[in-house]
């Protein structure tokens, strides 16, 4: 073998090895999603068959219909939208200016407070707040849940915005300041419009984490104020062998966040890795 | 010398304050809200940890009795053991796999963005819903995982239904969920690497392994430490997947600290005991984080 063929063989081997490693990494990741979809589309008789049925002869959407018939899914969906939506919105209103201030003033000690909030176990907020809300008679509406979800959304928004504003050039704002704009005007009219992409990433990541949160809703929610993850968890305890509807419910809960993930997939990788550096 | 340094330090501190003052108004609202959400619960928890209070009965001040009782509480001590066992596995394995995945996804190939999105899907999926799917997959008689084991000629496992295999099985779910997180952080590190050292190394005739070990590894180390810190904190705090899959069972075999805490607080209504557990728990997390932060400083210097 001369040098050139050896180099070519080497290139092919490299390519095959790369393809193999991508396949090995993705297989378990995709299999769980595949199995979830498979369970949700099969009749119970196929779901409880041994050996398991991978490709059913007949596909059904009955399981999805069951999920919506047997539980007020739309109500739970609306609860989740209210809780996650308001917690995300409030986090943006408070967190974007805070991220800007911390980035401009280089107040890294304040950023450390954020790490502290990540270190605190979520449950430790719940016992006192549960007692407080009970005393105030607030249990039974979605608003206490939304309030506690700010513990999740606010640090994410501030964290992402600090990273974003730190990399943003400040010449434009300085020009605005020289032209007589106040700090707030420079922020509102110059820095904020430029930060749109960062705000979108922060908002969506905060939305996803809040949507996925189970424990706050589990403690605070009553029958009519359940969020989606709590509703799905309760389906498990009631129908431990109805695998089809259970898998269908799992898909219904995840669908919004999966769609959002696809929408901002590029920015997720950038946003999260930028936030992780500090 | 020391005096001069102190003056400089004071000078930069004053400069820092001057820089900060105009921006305080931007920060205050967020700070007030987060303090209200954090400080009130903390004061309450510290006070309650000194009281014996079972919801529905009278509250009695007992000093440090709750802590003393924890020291001899077998279930509590065992839950610390479970937490350590779980955390070690749920940190080391995603770290190794996530780093390997980052090295693979750092290479340029067609469809990289698409495959990378597929790969990060698990960490975005709702953990409780994922846990339900895994529960069905773990079923010892009808679960698909045992079928896959028999396909490759391995004996079936009891998975989360046996006290010896429950924690490794739960770690499997944790690996599936959080390997992408490690991957993203490390990928960010790899993307920030300069090209020059590699070009110089190539000219000097270094091989792939030498380049990885002498250039990539030390430059990416700070990112690995960040991923390690985050992963450790999250693994210590694990709750949702364990609660949804097996409730800390069978028996109490997978009862980690957070699950124990939840049971004390919301199943037995032992607010005093639960508050003491929170304090101990937080102390453990802070201590471990400080150790890891110190390791990060060391990694920076070398």
CATH fold node name of the largest domain in chain B: MetI-like fold
- Terminal residue distance of chain B: 26 Å
Structural class of chain B: mainly alpha
Radius of gyration of chain B: 24 Å
**What's the story with the biggest beta sheet of chain A?**
none
- Please estimate the helix content of chain B: over 70%
CATH class bucket of the largest domain in chain A: Mainly Alpha
User: Which stretches of chain B are poorly predicted, pLDDT < 50 over at least 5 residues?
Assistant: 1-7
Number of helices of chain A: 14
Give the N-to-C terminal Cα separation of chain A.
50 Å
Oligomer: heterodimer
The total number of structural domains of chain A is 2
C-alpha Rg of chain A, in Å? 24 Å
Strand content bin of chain B: under 5%
Largest sheet of chain B: 2 strands, antiparallel
State the CATH architecture of the largest domain in chain B. Orthogonal Bundle
Please state the overall shape of chain A, judged from the principal axes of the Cα atoms. Answer: flat
Write down the secondary-structure element order of chain B.
Answer: HHEEHHHHHHHHHHH
Principal-axes geometry of chain B comes out as globular
- The number of helical runs of chain B is 13
């Amino acid at each position: 073998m001369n040098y050139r063929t050896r180099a070519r063989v080497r290139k092919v081997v490299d390519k095959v090895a790369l393809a193999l490693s991508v396949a090995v990494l993705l297989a378990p990741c995709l299999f769980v999603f595949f199995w979830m979809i498979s369970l949700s589309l099969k009749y119970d008789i196929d779901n409880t068959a041994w050996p398991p049925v991978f490709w059913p002869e007949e596909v059904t959407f009955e399981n999805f219909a069951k999920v919506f018939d047997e539980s007020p899914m739309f109500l739970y969906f609306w609860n989740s939208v209210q809780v996650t939506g308001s917690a995300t919105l409030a986090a943006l209103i408070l967190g974007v200016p805070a991220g800007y201030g911390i980035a401009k003033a280089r107040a890294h000690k304040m950023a450390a407070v954020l790490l502290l909030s990540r270190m605190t176990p979520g449950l430790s907020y719940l016992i006192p707040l549960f007692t407080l809300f009970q005393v105030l008679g607030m249990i039974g509406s979605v608003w206490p849940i939304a309030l506690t979800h700010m513990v999740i959304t606010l640090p994410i928004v501030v964290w992402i915005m600090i990273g974003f504003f730190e990399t943003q050039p400040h010449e434009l704002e300085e020009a605005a300041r020289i032209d007589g704009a106040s700090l707030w005007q420079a922020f509102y009219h110059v820095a904020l419009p430029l930060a749109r992409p960062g705000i979108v990433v922060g908002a969506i990541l905060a939305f996803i984490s809040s949507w996925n949160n189970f424990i706050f809703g589990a403690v605070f929610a009553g029958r009519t104020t359940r969020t989606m993850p709590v509703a799905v968890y309760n389906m498990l305890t009631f129908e431990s062998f109805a695998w089809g509807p259970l898998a269908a419910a799992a898909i219904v809960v995840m669908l919004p966040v999966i769609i959002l993930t696809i929408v901002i997939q590029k920015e997720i990788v950038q946003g999260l890795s930028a936030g992780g550096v500090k | 010398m020391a005096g001069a340094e102190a003056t400089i330090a004071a000078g930069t501190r004053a400069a820092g304050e001057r820089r900060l003052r105009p921006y305080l108004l931007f920060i205050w609202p967020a700070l007030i809200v987060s303090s209200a959400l954090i400080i009130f619960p903390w004061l309450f928890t510290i006070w309650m940890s000194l009281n014996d209070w079972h919801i529905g009965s009278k509250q009695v001040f007992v000093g440090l009795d709750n802590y003393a009782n924890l020291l001899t509480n077998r279930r509590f001590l065992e839950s610390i053991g479970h937490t350590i066992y779980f955390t070690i596995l749920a940190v080391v394995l995603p770290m190794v796999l996530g780093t390997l995945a980052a090295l693979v996804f750092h290479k340029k190939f067609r469809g990289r963005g698409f495959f990378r999105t597929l790969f990060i899907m698990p960490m975005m999926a709702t953990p409780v819903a994922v846990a339900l799917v895994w529960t069905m997959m773990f079923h010892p008689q009808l679960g698909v995982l045992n079928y896959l084991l028999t396909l490759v000629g391995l004996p079936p496992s009891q998975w989360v239904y046996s006290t010896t295999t429950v924690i490794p099985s739960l770690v499997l779910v944790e690996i599936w969920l959080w390997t992408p997180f490690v991957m993203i952080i490390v990928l960010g590190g790899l993307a920030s690497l300069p090209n020059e050292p590699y070009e110089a190394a190539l000219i000097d005739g270094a091989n792939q392994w030498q380049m990885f070990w002498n250039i990539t590894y030390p430059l990416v180390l700070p990112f690995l430490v960040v991923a390690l810190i985050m992963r450790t904190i999250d693994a210590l705090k694990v709750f949702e997947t364990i609660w949804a899959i097996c409730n800390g069972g069978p028996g109490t075999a997978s009862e980690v600290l957070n699950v124990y805490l939840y049971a004390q607080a919301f199943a037995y209504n032992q607010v005093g005991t639960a508050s003491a557990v929170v304090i101990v728990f937080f102390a453990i997390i802070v201590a471990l984080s400080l150790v890891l932060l110190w390791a990060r400083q060391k990694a920076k210097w070398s």
